[in-house]
């Protein structure tokens, strides 16, 4: 059972047939809607992209996400999940979760236009429908929920906060694990603008999870800040280990992956986000760091560590290119096999993928690029067109290549052994940009091998 207030200041317990809406069915919204429905909550997903909605309604997922296709079919079949392109479908919803995109504007500040439009559309529906709690899951800069979102809903609904509920409830799921993370999150952060929304969300999550994850109840501004602090801390860990990797590379016998394991065993540090590599990409860390730095600059506050994490990240792609040059000399006219295009494994997401910057660098050196990715080629084609050659398997990608660069740590690439490279490549040379191969296997093999954070053997 979860509660909401349907009169100003009042509250009422809702039955198990209470409905939730999820607005924006992308990498966050679709798994969220599907998981809510899978847990038995009648869920209406709304997206302004008609083609996307039509595809989802037929049981086809527009994104690659493990476990999602199966759960989507089940929840659609059971009738627990409905998807629509009209906001009218939300008139019966009790809670509306907003999961629309918040990309970077041209100047690096956050683009809140999708959030603003979604809030206005919900406001229009609220004008003629019952009390709703509006919940902002999208990543937004501090002050957005209680600022432009509240104003947009109030002006379109002709109602005031209290006639509707409002909260920030940032999302922390990881692409590639979004079903698992939605079903079993580490924590829940609720920053409600009003007490009633806090109670509604608290009881909603108590109903969703048999054991309520650790929950923080706070103000909207703190909730919004927690999301940015989280992402900038994770980015900092990545850049920290990458800088350390570049030091290890200069010390004979050093290996950053051993150093990372050693420090990760310290509970105060923890092992995740300590894999040295080509740096971070994706739809969140780069744009969130950028937006945060803009917010800090406007507030006249210095976030030197976050700024350094961002700047350090820019230096990793050139490191991989230099390693390739160390192995095979000039890259001009050479065929470089790129294994992995997606910004991370188990995802087809190409937004801000490191592969794009690497390909740019390689093209600038007049190298010929061939690439393989188990899932992201259709999305890569949308960005890169036919400027590179695509292959349908790792073996086909390696065939005739002069150097291979490991870019995304898909599990199937970690199973490659020196003999695979020797049997297929013209000049077997490998740069492990994600530290997924065992350097010892390459010692004494016919493959020239280099890896991020690996000092020359003594
Ligand atoms: P996305 O681009 O994959 O999906 C956004 C969806 O919203 C699209 O399907 C789009 O058509 C739809 N949309 C846009 N405007 C709309 C409107 N006015 N009404 C209804 N639908 C609309 O974005 P995403 O990756 O799912 O990210 C959503 C938010 O969650 C962002 O703020 C992001 O920073 C945050 N976030 C993302 C992740 C992640 O791993 N992708 C993790 C945590 C938080």
Number of helices: 18
Query: What's the overall average pLDDT, rounded?
Result: 95
Bound small-molecule species: nicotinamide-adenine-dinucleotide
Distance between the termini: 65 Å
Lateral arrangement of strands in the main beta sheet = 5-4-3-6-7-8-9-10
- Helicity range: 40-55%
| 3D shape | elongated
Which strand-content bin applies to the residues? 5-15%
Number of strands: 16
Structural class comes to alpha/beta
Low-confidence stretches: 1-14
Q: Over all CA atoms, what is the radius of gyration? A: 24 Å
- Report the biggest beta sheet as strand number plus sense, adding barrel if it closes: 8 strands, mixed
What would the keywords be for this entry?
458 residues; alpha/beta; eight-stranded mixed sheet; six-stranded parallel sheet; 18 helices; elongated; disordered N terminus; binds nicotinamide-adenine-dinucleotide
């Amino acid at each position: 059972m979860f509660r909401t207030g349907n009169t100003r200041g009042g509250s009422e317990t809702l039955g198990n047939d209470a409905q939730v809406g999820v607005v924006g069915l992308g990498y966050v919204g679709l798994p969220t809607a599907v998981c809510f429905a899978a847990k038995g909550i009648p869920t209406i997903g709304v997206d302004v992209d008609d083609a996307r909605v039509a595809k989802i309604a037929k049981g086809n997922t527009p994104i690659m996400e493990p476990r999602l296709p199966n759960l989507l079919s089940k929840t659609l079949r059971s009738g627990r999940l409905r998807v629509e392109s009209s906001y009218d479908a939300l008139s019966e919803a009790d809670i509306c979760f907003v999961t629309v995109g918040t990309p970077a504007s041209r100047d690096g500040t956050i683009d809140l236009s999708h959030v603003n439009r979604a809030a206005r559309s919900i406001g229009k529906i609220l004008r003629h429908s019952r009390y709703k709690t509006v919940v902002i899951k999208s990543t937004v800069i501090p002050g957005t929920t209680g600022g432009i979102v509240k104003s947009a809903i109030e002006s379109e609904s002709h109602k005031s906060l209290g006639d509707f509920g409002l909260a920030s409830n940032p999302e922390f799921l990881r692409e590639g694990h979004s079903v698992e993370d939605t079903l079993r999150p580490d924590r829940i952060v609720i920053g409600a603008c009003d007490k009633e929304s806090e109670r509604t969300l608290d009881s909603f999550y108590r109903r969703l999870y048999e054991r309520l994850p650790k929950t923080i109840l706070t103000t909207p501004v703190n909730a919004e800040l927690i999301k940015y602090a989280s992402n900038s801390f994770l980015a900092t860990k990545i850049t920290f280990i990458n800088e350390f990797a570049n030091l290890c590379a200069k010390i004979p016998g050093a290996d950053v992956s051993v150093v990372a394991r050693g420090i990760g065993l310290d509970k105060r540090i923890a092992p995740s986000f300590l894999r040295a590599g080509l740096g971070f990409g994706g739809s969140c860390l780069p744009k969130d760091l950028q937006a945060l730095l803009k917010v800090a600059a406007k507030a006249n506050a210095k976030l030197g560590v976050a700024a350094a994490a961002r700047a350090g990240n820019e230096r990793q792609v050139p490191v991989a290119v230099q390693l390739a040059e160390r192995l095979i000399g000039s890259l001009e006219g050479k065929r470089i096999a790129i294994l992995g295009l997606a910004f991370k494994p188990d995802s087809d997401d190409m937004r801000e993928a490191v592969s794009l910057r690497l390909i740019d660098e390689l093209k600038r050196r007049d190298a010929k690029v061939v690439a393989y990715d188990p899932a992201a080629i259709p999305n890569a084609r949308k960005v890169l067109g036919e400027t590179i050659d695509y292959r349908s398997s790792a073996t086909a990608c390696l065939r005739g290549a002069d150097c291979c660069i490991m870019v995304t740590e898909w599990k199937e690439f970690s199973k490659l052994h020196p003999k695979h490279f020797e049997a297929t490549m013209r000049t077997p040379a490998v740069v492990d940009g994600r530290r997924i191969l065992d350097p010892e296997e390459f010692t004494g093999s016919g493959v020239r091998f280099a890896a991020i954070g690996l000092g020359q053997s003594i």
